[in-house]
Write a structure and sequence with these properties.
The protein has 321 residues and is α/β, with parallel strands linked by helices. 45% of the residues lie in helices and 11% in strands. The chain has a single domain, classed as Rossmann fold (3-Layer(aba) Sandwich), CATH 3.40.50. It has an eight-stranded mixed beta sheet, sandwiched between helices. α5 links the parallel β2 and β3. Bound molecules: NADP nicotinamide-adenine-dinucleotide phosphate (NAP).
Amino acid sequence: MNSFLRRITSRVLDPLVPASFGRPGFLLRAPAFDPRDLDVSLAGQRIVITGGTSGIGFAAAQALKRLHAEVIVVGRDPAKGLSAVEALNRVDGAEARFVRCDLSDFRSIDEAVRDLGPKSIDRLVHNASILPDELSRTAEGLEATYASNLVGPLRFQFLIDESAERLRRVVWVSSGGMYAVPLDLRVLRGDVKRFDGVTAYAQTKRAQILVAERMAATFGSRLRSYSMHPGWVDTPSVASSLPRFHALTKAFLRTPEQGADTVIWLTATDAPLESGAFYFDRERQNSELVPGTATSLKTREELFAAIERDAKLPRTFISAS
Ligand SMILES: NC(=O)c1ccc[n+]([C@@H]2O[C@H](COP(=O)([O-])OP(=O)(O)OC[C@H]3O[C@@H](n4cnc5c(N)ncnc54)[C@H](OP(=O)(O)O)[C@@H]3O)[C@@H](O)[C@H]2O)c1
C-alpha cells in the first residue's frame, strides 16, 4: 500500500475508533508496513522491557529476542518472570533474564538497577502499567498509578542512565485512553475527592507522551525517545481491570503480537524516525486530537518538576530547573 492509500485508510478509520484500535485497523494497515524496517540485527544490544513477562511486553520481548537482542524482562512476580524467561530462551541467541522490580517501590527499583549490573543497557521499553480500582498510596506516599506508571519508571531510567554507559533509546507504551483527558496535575497525583482508576490511568498515559517528547528535546542526538499506543489488545490486564469492556470487545481485540508491533518497530528499527513523536500502527499521530486536551508550556514544566521531585532524583533530569 502506498503512502497516499495509507493516509486515506487512516483518515477513514480514525473516527471509527473501535475498528481502528481493534484488530480490523491493524489488519488493514499492516500491509503498508515496510518489512525492511525490521530487517535488522540487534546482536550486542541489551534491551530492558518493563512488564515484559506478560501481554504486549512479552510479545515484544519475543520479537526482539528473535532479532538477536539480549532481552531483560522486568516485573513484580518471579514465577511469571521465570516462565517468561523459559519461553524466551527456547529461541536461540543471547540468554534472556528476569529482574524483579516493583516500579511503585523505590527500594525495589534501586535493587533492580543494582541487579542489572554494570554493563550498559542500550534500549529501555517503559511498558509496565497498572489500572487499579481503588486509591492506594505507596511507601513514599504517592498515589499508586502515578507511582507505577510515571514516577517509578522515571527513577528507573535515571538510575540506569547513571549506573552505566548511557541509554540510546526509550519507548513509552501509552494508551489511546489518554485522548479524552487534558492533563491535570492534581488528578494525576491523586489529589482528588473521589478516585477513578480509569481517569488516574489516562492521566499517567497523557503524561508519558509529554515525558517522551521532553526527553527527546533534552537529550537530543544522544537518546531517541518515542511514545506510542498499542490499540485495544487482549491481555490479562484488560480482562482483569476492564472485564465488561473485555467481554464486549473480545472478538475485535488485537492479539498481543499485533499490539506489540509498533513497540517492536520503535525499539528495533534503524529507519529515520522523529524522536519525541507519538505513534500508532507505525505512523506518527497527533496526541491532542480532542479539543481542550492540549497541555500548556507552564503545565508541562510543572509536570516535569513534579515527577522529578516525587521520584527523589538527586539532580534535574528532564525539568528546566
Ligand atoms: N491491553 C490493551 O488493550 C492496552 C491498551 C492501551 C495501552 N496498553 C498499555 O500496554 C502496556 C502493557 O499492557 P498489557 O495489557 O500487556 O498488560 P499485562 O499483560 O497485564 O502486563 C502487564 C505487565 O506489567 C507488569 N507490571 C505491572 N505492574 C508493575 C509494577 N508496578 N512494576 C513492575 N512491573 C509491573 C506485569 O508483571 P507483574 O504482575 O509480575 O508485575 C506484567 O508483566 C501498558 O502500559 C498498558 O497501559 C494496553
